Amino acid sequence: MSSSTDLGRPDPDPTVVPSRDDRPVSDRGDTVCVIGAGASGLTAVKNLREAGFGVDCYERETGVGGAWNWRHDRSPVYASTHLISSRPFTQFPDFPMPDDWPDYPHHSQLLSYFERYADHFDLRQHVWFGTEVVRVEPVEGDRWDVTTRSTGGYGPERTSRYAAVVLANGHNWSPKLPRYEGLEEFRGEVMHASSYKDPAQLRGKRVLVVGAGNTGCDIAVEAAQQASHCWHSTRRGYWYAPKYVLGRPADQVNDTLLALRVPLRVRQWLYHWTLRLTVGDLTRFGLPKPDHRVYETHPIANSQLVYYVGHGEITPVPDVARFHDRTVELTDGRRIDPELVVFATGYLPRFEFLKGRVLGDEDGSGRPRLWLNAFTAGHPTLAVVGLVQPDSGIFTISHWQSVLFARLLTLRATRPERAEAFDRRVRAGLGERYSAKVKDSTRHWFEVGHADYLRALQRALHELEGSK
What we know:
InterPro entries: FAD/NAD-bd_sf, Flavin_mOase, Flavin_mOase-like, FMO-like. It is found in: Endoplasmic reticulum membrane. There is one protein chain. The protein is an alpha/beta fold. It has two domains: 16-174 and 348-465, 3-Layer(bba) Sandwich (FAD/NAD(P)-binding domain); 177-345, 3-Layer(bba) Sandwich (FAD/NAD(P)-binding domain), CATH 3.50.50. Helices cover 26% and strands 19% of the residues. The protein has nine helices and 24 strands. The chain has helices spanning 39-50, 107-120, 214-226, 250-259, 264-278, 305-310, 395-414, 416-429, 450-465; strands at 15-18, 24-27, 32-35, 55-59, 127-129, 131-139, 143-150, 158-162, 164-167, 189-192, 206-210, 229-233, 240-241, 244-245, 248-249, 300-301, 315-317, 320-323, 328-330, 335-336, 340-343, 382-384, 389-390, 447-448. The protein has a five-stranded mixed sheet with strand order 1-2-8-7-6, with no helix packed on it. A five-stranded parallel sheet has the order 5-4-3-9-22, covered by helices on one side. Helix 3 (214-226) links the parallel strand 11 and strand 12. The protein is globular and about 65 Å long. The two termini are 26 Å apart.
């Protein structure tokens, strides 16, 4: 399919059609709109262009990289951020990272990787930087009206009509803030991990870190080195995976077991056996006993947390019960007196430019109802790319999600019966999971096992193209 211009930019004199409220709309023909120029948005632009589509990509910031560009206001990246999945399992399948990079690259290397990716595939010319999306509305014929304006609300709004839309605006930018009794009266400093950028923010302070995700564990480790005291509060026990096992990155060892189709129960046994040989019983360090089996929650890849707990530099404590003016009461009745509380309590997905019911969020929880974490019923020209929490890298998954969507859009014109069969498959598959049993919490809404998920994507591609 072709766009109304080779570059995917709006024509100087585009066709203007009326909208439902009579505002002028620029008709972009067969062009596809991509929202976001982070990792998922960039690979969507690249794969749609390779499939022959014109693309307009809108990015609210002034550069590529999304969450990995620390200059961006919404970036959750802090000074010491590294990948938690190893390089070979994170990179795009058609653009490998340099062989001389470390196993777990630094965030600055990731940003340079995205910049090189954008330049190699000549993607910047299709991106409108400094432009935020205000509204995305479905219109007759499975098309979409997308209203944009300059970031910050300056200048007039502009509405363009697109053949399809890809949502790639990320899901690690809208902080999930807990509610505790008395928090408003607490006189100490309170911040979400999204505002944490440098260890200097912790230096010399009594710090309470709330949350046991990868970010919470990283900040607790940095507090162990910089703060005068660090408490680490968790609701439940977790399994802390070392980044290296048998001399190799842990995800590479795990992937070997997956490739050999080792049953989940056997992999769980091997994991427990490895932990017993290395760190032993975590409860002897004061860490709570996990209330679930390994692989039933998102992996915590941290080799240093247990080290600093064992050295007394981190004090594990249970969940917070309530706040007082100068102290924090814990669920076991103890009181502590932190000067700084860091809520590493995660993020919630937000599509503030789109009505929730479009993605199946009927109860207002913010959780879309999708098949393959990408497709929703009733809107065959809409896809979400990158809304996954895998047990490995995400870039490969985003690549194949966008490849699948590009092929679906192509078949809508060339083989509509195949596209219609795909739509029926979407309706039948809503709510499918692609991982072992996981906890039902916002943190695990989009949990996927990368091997199971990629196989599901492969099956979807084969079904779409009529292969067996």
